[in-house]
Every structure is written in structure tokens, then in C-alpha cells.
Amino acid sequence: MLKQIIIAASLVAATAALAQEATVPTQAPPPAPYQEVSKLVDLPEFLPGLGTLYVDPATLPAGPFLAYDHDGKLSATVYMTPLADLQGGTAYDDLPVGAPEVTSVDIYYNAGHPGVEQPHAHVVLYHDADAKSRLAQ
Amino acid sequence: MWTRRHLLARGGGGLAALAAPRLVRAAGTEVLGMRGSARGERVWFAPQGLAVAPGTTLRWTNRDPGNSHTTTAYHPDLYGRPLRIPEGATPWDSGLLLPDESFEVTLERPGVYDYYCQPHEMAGMVGRIVVGQPGDPGWEEASADPGDLPDMALMAFPTVEAILAAGRIDEEEPT
């Protein structure tokens, strides 16, 4: 099971790395149709590890979610892919990326939260070397 | 931030004078946490199982800085879920609590109360409160009907016997 999750999430990450670049500003807030996640669902405005997230609701659950730090700088692009969907054959192809430079990628399991309640994988593309630390707290 | 929402679960009148077993905490206020690992891999109630005396107030506080949680009783009046609290007890639903928000409920009727977190039931975030002990007037056992509960939730409930023996059951913190 864990191996399947890792393989599936890795495929998503590989796909995302090749995806098209989104036309979004590097400073928050991004324009419509992006909306702040904490105004769509009951979640904190700044999520430790993810920052302040914006998403086009039409793209849920996968996103992309644009992650901004406390200074409003675009720091990461995040995808949230339900494990059951991946196992059921759903593919998330050609997902936009918030910025062309990706310095590292984290993939990990999440048990769910308002907005994406199914257990899912977080695929986090960091856009600069310090992004992870700025999004941490 | 402190949001105090309060609900009194009725139906236990006349039971306050009953003697509590040794490991059942005396009526008062018990504090429970809603917890999550840093990246949200695991979410849980702390404690997951708790034995209390009738008339005890339970206060849940969201201690998870990166997530929202509810405490919601299993009851047909709440989202059509199976009855897993004593018949006649009033069900509760906190709604989504942001970090550091709290919710209180007072339980009077003896028996077993099962509850869950709405966004995290599939991840097994459930809890069980045992009010009083078997033999108390009006005591109701835990429901044996799995109903529509996901397997992760059913497997996560501590047994009534374990809760009564230990007083509280805490899930191991992730390392």
C-alpha cells in the first residue's frame, strides 16, 4: 500500500514538473479565479508548512494551490491528490506550475482537511532554496 | 482565540448522586485535545477514550495549528449517522473549530458516547466517552452495529473495558 502511494505520488510529481507554467504574480494575492483557501473553508489563514494558500475552486481537489509566505512571496506550488482517486485510475495531467523554477519537491501523506477531506498526497514544489523554511511557521 | 460553545446533553436527572468507580473521574470539567502531526499525516483526539462520572463537562480544544476539527456525536439527527450515544441523550456538533477554539458539552446519562471529527472520520479520528459504569440505572452499552462507519473509524474505538480499567486511553504520539 505504502509503495503504491509513493509510486503514485512520484508520478504526479513528475507530471507536475513537466506541466505548463501558470501566469501568476510572485506577490500575493493572485488574480481571479484564484481565491484564498481560508476564505473558502474553515482553515487557518497561514498553514504551518504550506503558508497562505490560494486555489481556483474549479481545480479542486488537485489544484494547483499557490503557497505564499508571510511577506506575500510565491514560495511553492502544491497539489493535493486523493489516494483513492489515483488507485482508481484518475490521472492529473498538465497541471500548471506557479513559477518555472523548482528547487526541490516534497511528497507526503495527509489524512485530510476541510476542502480535501479524503486521505491524499501533498506534492509540494518549492520555488527557491529558502521557501520551505519561510513556509514552516 | 477562545470561542465557547456550550450544549447541555439532557436526560440524566437524578443520577448525580451515584457513586463513581475508582477510575471514573469525578464530575467536573475534563479537557480533551484535537491533535495532528506537523504535516497532517495523523490526526487524533487526546485522549481517545475517557471514563467520567455523570454530569461531567467535556471541553475539546483544537491543538492542531494546521487543521480544523469537529467533535460530532454519532446520532441520526446529525447527518443521518447511526445512533452511538445513549438513547435520549442530546447529540452535539461543534462545527469546525479553528486552532485554539473550544467547545463544551455536559454529559448526564450513563452509557457509551461515540463521536468523530467530520473531516477526519475516514482517517480514524474518533473518540469514546464512557459516562458512569455498567450497572448504573439507565446504562447503555456501546453500539455493536457498524452502520455506515468506515473501517478506520471502527478499528479506532478503544474498548469500554479498557477505558474503564485505565480511566483514559491516549493514542501514542507520532515520532
TrEMBL record, chain A:
<protein>
    <submittedName>
        <fullName>Uncharacterized protein</fullName>
    </submittedName>
</protein>
<keyword id="KW-0732">Signal</keyword>
<feature type="signal peptide">
    <location>
        <begin position="1"/>
        <end position="19"/>
    </location>
</feature>
Automatic annotation (TrEMBL), chain B:
<dbReference type="GO" id="GO:0005507">
    <property type="term" value="F:copper ion binding"/>
</dbReference>
<dbReference type="InterPro" id="IPR006311">
    <property type="entry name" value="TAT_signal"/>
</dbReference>
<keyword id="KW-0249">Electron transport</keyword>
<keyword id="KW-0813">Transport</keyword>
<dbReference type="GO" id="GO:0009055">
    <property type="term" value="F:electron transfer activity"/>
</dbReference>
<dbReference type="Pfam" id="PF00127">
    <property type="entry name" value="Copper-bind"/>
</dbReference>
<keyword id="KW-0186">Copper</keyword>
<dbReference type="InterPro" id="IPR052721">
    <property type="entry name" value="ET_Amicyanin"/>
</dbReference>
<keyword id="KW-0479">Metal-binding</keyword>
<protein>
    <submittedName>
        <fullName>Halocyanin</fullName>
    </submittedName>
</protein>
<feature type="binding site">
    <location>
        <position position="69"/>
    </location>
    <ligand>
        <name>Cu cation</name>
    </ligand>
</feature>
<feature type="binding site">
    <location>
        <position position="125"/>
    </location>
    <ligand>
        <name>Cu cation</name>
    </ligand>
</feature>
<dbReference type="InterPro" id="IPR000923">
    <property type="entry name" value="BlueCu_1"/>
</dbReference>
<dbReference type="InterPro" id="IPR002387">
    <property type="entry name" value="Plastocyanin"/>
</dbReference>
<dbReference type="InterPro" id="IPR008972">
    <property type="entry name" value="Cupredoxin"/>
</dbReference>
<feature type="binding site">
    <location>
        <position position="120"/>
    </location>
    <ligand>
        <name>Cu cation</name>
    </ligand>
</feature>
<dbReference type="InterPro" id="IPR028871">
    <property type="entry name" value="BlueCu_1_BS"/>
</dbReference>
<feature type="domain" description="Blue (type 1) copper">
    <location>
        <begin position="40"/>
        <end position="131"/>
    </location>
</feature>
<feature type="binding site">
    <location>
        <position position="117"/>
    </location>
    <ligand>
        <name>Cu cation</name>
    </ligand>
</feature>
